[in-house]
Amino acid sequence: MIMYLNGQYVPREQALIPVEDRGFIFGDGIYEGVRSVGDKMFEWAAHADRFENGLKGLRINFSRAQIDALEAVCERVVQENGLVDGEAFLYLQVSRGAAPRTHFFPAATVAPTVFVSASKLVVPRKMREEGCSAVTFPDMRWKRRDWKTVNLLGNVLARQAASEAGAYEAILHEDGVVTEGAATNVFAVFNGVLQTHPLTERILPGITRKVVMALVAELGIPVREEPIPFARLTKADELFVCGSTTDVTPVVKVDGTPVGNGKPGPISEKLRDAFEARLYGSVGAGR
Question: Which of 17, 64, 166, 205 is at 20 to 30 A from 53, Cα to Cα?
Answer without folding.
Answer: 17
